[in-house]
Amino acid sequence: MSGPPSRRARFQEWREQRPFTAGVLLTLGGAEILVTMKAPLPVILHVGMQGLAGYLLPALMIVCGLLLLFNPAQRLFYSVLGILLSLGTWMTSNLGGFFIGLLLGATGSCMAFGWLPDQEPRISRRHRRKAAREAALREGRDERGTGPDRDAGDAGEAFEAAVPGAAEAV
Q1: How far apart are CA 36 and CA 60, in angstroms?
Q2: pTM, whole model, 2 decimals?
Q3: How far apart are CA 48 and CA 41, in angstroms?
Q4: Distance of CA 85 to CAs 63, 125, 159, Å?
């Protein structure tokens, strides 16, 4: 008897449908750069074009990060724009927020660019081997897939039975 999904389950489902970590990193990078813009003058390393561009680029980084979270269909555009804005803060905003905001923004943008929404997560080699071992033990064979009544050719069938679709991933 299952009731409605909990808040945590709904949030996790929402988070899995978008480049969540990438959007958060890009947003944090822009916020960090904006915070360093308010640093006292002796702390500021590079004044740069402290006018509008010094505040505009990190603000646009925050907007791109939020748009990645709430409109993931346009992730390629937002990620390219985010990396360009992140690199632009090198000149305009205290060396990109003392490198921290620049690195956060660049990492988030690259993660968003590489995010694939409809691809199944890859199964690691360790998990594939473990599943094949368990399948072989269930069938009464040793770890190599051979036993007294089976030959080595059946090992692939046992592996495919244990991990469906693994042959295409290899």
Answers
A1: 16
A2: 0.64
A3: 13
A4: 11, 38, 47
List Cα–Cα distances, 78 to 58, 135, 162, in angstroms. Answer: 14, 45, 40
Cα separation, 150 vs 170, in Å, equals: 24
Backbone φ and ψ for 149, nearest 5 degrees, come out as -110, 5
C-beta of residue 108 within 8 angstroms of C-beta of residue 30: no
- Contacts of 76-84 spanning 24+ positions with Cβ under 8 A: 76/113, 78/112, 79/22, 79/109, 79/110, 79/112, 79/113, 80/109, 80/113, 82/26, 82/108, 82/109, 82/112, 83/109, 83/110, 83/113
- pLDDT tens for residues 67-92? 999 999 999 999 999 999 999 888 88
Residue from 116, 117, 23 nearest 64 by CA: 23
Q: What is the pLDDT of residues 121-153, one digit of tens each?
A: 778 888 889 999 998 888 876 555 555 544 445
Residue with tokens 């090198």: 90
Round to whole Å and give the CA distance between 113 and 108: 9
